[in-house]
Amino acid sequence: MLLQDAHQFGQKLLRRRPLGPREETDHHTAGCLNTLDLVIIGVRRMLGAGVHILVGAVAKYIAGPAIILSFLVAALSSLLSGICYIEFGARVPRSGSMYLYSYSIMGQVYGFIIGWNRILSLTVGTACIARAWSYTFDSLIGNHISQALERTFSLYMPYYLAKYPDFFALGLVLLLTGLLVLGVHVLPQVNKVFMGINLLVLSFIIVSGFITGDLHNWKLTEQDYALNTSESKDIYSLGPLGSGGFVPFGLDGILRGAALCFYMFIGFDSIVTTGEKAQNPQRSIPISIVVSVLICFVVYFGVSAALTLMVPYYQIHPDSPFLQAFLHVGWGPARYVVAVGILCALSSSLLNTMFAMSWLIYTMAEDRLLFRFLAQVNARTRTHIRVIMISGNLAGVLALLFHFSDLMDLMSLRSLLANLVVDFSVLVLRYHSDQNLSKNQKTEEETEMELVVQERSLDSVLEASNLSFLKSLWFPPSTIPTRKSGQIVYGCAFLLVLLLIILSLILAQRPSQVFSGDPVLTAVAVLLLLLITGVTAIIWRQPQDPTALHFKVPALPFLPLVSIFVNIYLMMCMSTWTWVLFGIWMVIGFAIYFGYGIRHSLEENNDQQPAASTSQT
């Protein structure tokens, strides 16, 4: 009885959302996007507000000039995940979101996790952009706002929150919330204009940096640090020196910076989710992802290199790095031009992010995974007033109380988890058949076991079952996926994730002991590697689904596993406080899901209606 209840509960978690018929507009737009169009979509999504928010803090406190290597690691990790995203999207022959894809392919609980964490990313992203807008404007007027607020409130703020409440950022979010309630949104043409302005400003920063920069800033020593300490009159304290030079914080700083910089490459999923509209998806989607990631890496490389050449990394202003950098090199008037471009990029990104946040919450509420009242639309304005007000107020509170470095950590962790789920899904789905067995169908293995039960005693049946299972691990009885082979891969994939988490924890928290030859940790690491190799070999031996897709991940299962390992390792580099905040968010989400969503979802109601009609007949 207990096993039957657990089985039914598991089936509820993995219920899939059926895809509705394509809208008429999809037929008119199918095949209308070429490779260049997809590249523009990817670059526009990736090259947003993140570069103006993150670079200063990462360069000053975490990686130093080696931030350019952090971007390289983050770009390679993004490419690995991007390849998995392509196959994941190829399984849904229509445009949509990653929430829709996960819900319809993997099941309800996966869709909720992706959707709930996407809400986190958009909410926190709104708060981050509002904070960055406030910092940029404040820097233009001489930091008078921040100084006044810090003098008034700094003594009353807990250590885990920002130094002062940013009422300017709160007011900005509430203002845009009111505009969204009235139905205001950014036109596509405006987005293109702001993207062009953003590219021009970033190009100007790169060129200016290489003109005014000094290579000595990549070779700084303790003497330089002491000299700058004695001469510094800036109200912001100097950052740590580390060991100086180009890599002042070592390999750990590069990887920790990569975990944060990874967020700046999020956006390639927009290429995948519009793949139905591509003229030649087999060719254009992989090329566009690679090209867009490469373009953004070149821009991030140039901007971070220019910044660290213009200003010693420990003197970089973490909140408005580029404006202060132009002051540092004596190009004061140029910072006004840069500020206009930054504010344009931030404004466009802020309104788009808030619109996407409210729309996703509305979509999940329509599916009844979130509370139903959130799906109500105002008859007069045709907007989701309740959703917009609730999400806007939440983002405003985050912008008011939290420093955006903590918020950026949270967004990076969420992005890594989303990629981990997609990588895991691709690995599992390739070894499952698309033909779903009905309850009355029996697999060859089940039929064979029934015959064995009829002919043998219970002990011999158990022994035969165990032998059959062990044999199927290395010599699967079928050349196409079966229910048993799919279950084997599913279990092995979960085991691999667990083993990789343990290995990543050891490598991220105790790297020096492992590589210096600590007998205990080295032995544990070697044992974990052997187990990972063995489980990977078992997955490799299972039959793959022969269903034709316009793209399939090569070198399965190794490439998805490498991507899973990279994502897990970067997640383990996050701070304890980031994990605490993320844990609180997930506890709230699962409380909503298991308390409301799983019992009120549309799939639950659809399952109950046939059961009720059957009992009446």
Textual characterization of the structure:
The chain is mostly helical. 71% of the residues lie in helices and 0% in strands. The protein is built from 26 helices and no strands. The chain is globular and about 75 Å long. The model is unreliable at 21-30, 435-455 and 611-617 (pLDDT under 50). The chain crosses the membrane at residues 62-86, 98-116, 167-186, 193-211, 246-266, 287-316, 336-362, 383-404, 410-429, 488-508, 520-541, 553-571, 577-596. It is a multi-pass membrane protein. Residues 551-601 form the Cationic amino acid transporter C-terminal domain. This is Cationic amino acid transporter C-terminal domain-containing protein.
Secondary structure blueprint with pairings:
Layout: H1 2-13, H2 24-29, H3 35-46, H4 50-63, H5 67-90, H6 98-105, H7 108-140, H8 144-153, H9 167-181, H10 188-212, H11 222-231, H12 250-261, H13 269-273, H14 281-310, H15 321-328, H16 334-366, H17 385-401, H18 404-429, H19 444-455, H20 458-474, H21 483-509, H22 511-515, H23 519-541, H24 558-572, H25 576-600, H26 602-616
Helix pairs in contact: 3-14, 4-12, 4-14, 5-12, 5-14, 5-18, 5-24, 6-7, 7-9, 7-16, 7-17, 7-18, 7-25, 9-17, 10-14, 10-16, 15-16, 16-17, 18-21, 18-24, 18-25, 21-23, 21-24
Transmembrane segments: 62-86, 98-116, 167-186, 193-211, 246-266, 287-316, 336-362, 383-404, 410-429, 488-508, 520-541, 553-571, 577-596
Main location: membrane
Family: Belongs to the amino acid-polyamine-organocation (APC) superfamily. Cationic amino acid transporter (CAT) (TC 2.A.3.3) family.
